[in-house]
Design a protein that fits this description.
Elements lengths: L1 E5 L4 H16 L3 E7 L3 H6 L3 E5 L3 H5 L2 H7 L6 H13 L2 H11 L5 E4 L4 H10 L3 E6 L23 H17 L1 H10 L7 H10 L2 E3 L16 E3 L15 H8 L5 E4 L8 H15 L3 E4 L14 E4 L4 H4 L5 E4 L3 H10 L3 E5 L4 H10 L7 E2 L5 H13 L1 H15 L3 H13 L2
Parallel strand pairs: 1-2, 1-4, 2-3, 4-5, 5-6, 6-7, 8-9, 8-11, 9-10, 11-12, 12-13
Length: about 425
């Protein structure tokens, strides 16, 4: 069986798809991974067949439109959705070409969040299977714990379910240009919000999330499989930079602060805020430069600026992890068994920050536009001094490490496809 994993997105979207692709490959499936062309060497180094998406995701995130979406100050949910729509409208035609070109070459498709309706419609025309592959619980539910957009997060309510459908209807507009382009080529009628919700809620779905974090609520159907996280460990021959090892060996475990693929219009200001908070705590700290491109030539001796380092190696060596709340980084922090906190920028990030805090393994989340020297320094203090939180985080990490997310996903895939 020829399987295409279509992972239009940032590194946090691509990495778990690589892990899932390798698991399916080991099970005997012929797997191709289609992701942004800036990830080609990485995908090939992991032994997977690569098919490029005609978008450089890192370059896209650096555009003014993307920065309006990611780095907007005090923007409303409606404004965030509008910014997201402008960004995806600009690449819809290119992504539609990718989807259409793949139709005749693969038997089964695993679609990421952004292409669900378009790829589902296209696969149906060819009589093929489209599976949703996601690391985010978009599916509406009464459950506050499992509802990403639940307005009543600490309880079960029909209000949560209704609001989940409202959000889905809004997202159908965000991704509408892609669906229209694909459907027009296939001579199908234009998509409606109902089409999007039907594709999202009824398609077989592999959810690469731990059920300890997002339980499978009673109102989710059997089509949805909460498998556990899809972790991709570092290459066996990877070695840390000597200067990083020297810093780690020179004192107590540091705190990690990093915002991953979140770009910024003013990375220097963000770095100054971080440094001021660190100065108030005196904490040894590693700051990840990320796609925001933070740079500094004159840092205090207790601070180091680093480029990308495998989280499975780095995070267990940290006193705590403060991050943007991407699904993959959240999973890595939980797996490491150290306290964490989320500085949420967009999308699903507030949900992950909320769940970390509700589970008792991290500090309360902070929205990026509300980040200050005072609340960041207080978060650092809490994460590094709360002994009970540290014990809970360590125990939770053991449970996460005991899960078999890839194995569960491969078995669910085989059941869905009858292979």
């Amino acid at each position: 069986m020829r399987v295409l994993l279509y992972g239009f997105g940032s590194r946090g979207d691509v990495q778990p798809f690589i892990a899932l692709g390798k698991g399916l490959q080991r099970a005997g499936y012929d797997v191709t991974l289609s992701v942004g062309r800036n990830f080609e060497s990485w995908v090939r180094s992991e032994g997977l067949t690569f098919q490029p998406i005609a978008i450089d995701m890192e370059a896209l995130v650096q555009t003014d439109t993307a920065k309006d979406w990611i780095d907007g100050r005090k923007q409303t949910a409606v404004a965030e959705v509008r910014s997201m729509k402008r960004m995806f409208d600009g690449v819809a035609a290119q992504v539609a070409e990718d989807v259409l070109a793949a139709l005749d070459h693969f038997d089964t498709f695993i679609s990421g969040v952004l292409t669900v309706e378009a790829m589902n419609a296209a696969a149906a025309v060819r009589g093929k299977t489209c599976i949703v592959g996601t690391m985010t619980p978009w599916t509406p539910t009464r459950s506050g714990a499992s509802g990403m957009n639940a307005p009543i997060p600490r309880g079960d309510s029909v209000v949560n379910l209704i609001f989940g459908y409202v959000v889905e209807a809004m997202m159908s507009n965000v991704f509408g240009a892609l669906s229209r382009a694909v459907r027009a080529n296939l001579k199908l009628r234009p998509s409606t919000p109902v089409d999007y919700m039907r594709a999202w809620n009824q398609a077989p779905t592999l959810m690469g999330i731990s059920p300890l974090v997002t339980p499978h609520p009673p109102d989710w159907g059997d089509n949805l499989h909460v498998t556990g996280y899809w972790f991709l460990d570092r290459a066996a021959d990877w070695q840390p930079p000597p200067e990083l090892t020297a810093f780690l060996d020179s004192g107590d475990p540091p705190v990690y602060i990093g915002f991953g693929s979140m770009s910024s219009r003013d990375p220097e200001s963000t770095l100054r805020l971080m440094l001021a908070a660190i100065e108030k705590t005196g904490q040894r700290t590693l700051i990840h430069s990320g796609w925001a491109g933070m740079r500094a030539d004159d840092l205090p001796p207790n601070v180091r600026l680093i480029d990308s380092v495998p989280h499975d190696w780095l995070f267990p060596r940290m006193a705590a992890v403060i991050h943007h709340g991407g699904a993959g980084t959240t999973a890595a922090g939980l797996r490491a068994g150290v306290p964490s906190a989320v500085i949420a920028h967009i999308g699903d990030q507030p949900y992950w920050g909320r769940r970390i805090h509700e589970l008792g393994v991290g500090a309360p989340p902070i929205r990026r536009h509300a980040l200050t020297v005072e609340n960041l320094s207080e978060t650092i203090r809490l994460l590094t001094t709360d002994r009970e939180m540290r014990v809970r985080a360590a125990a939770f990490g053991e449970q996460i490490r005991a899960e078999d997310g890839i194995g569960n996903a491969v078995r669910a895939f085989a059941k869905i496809t009858g292979t």
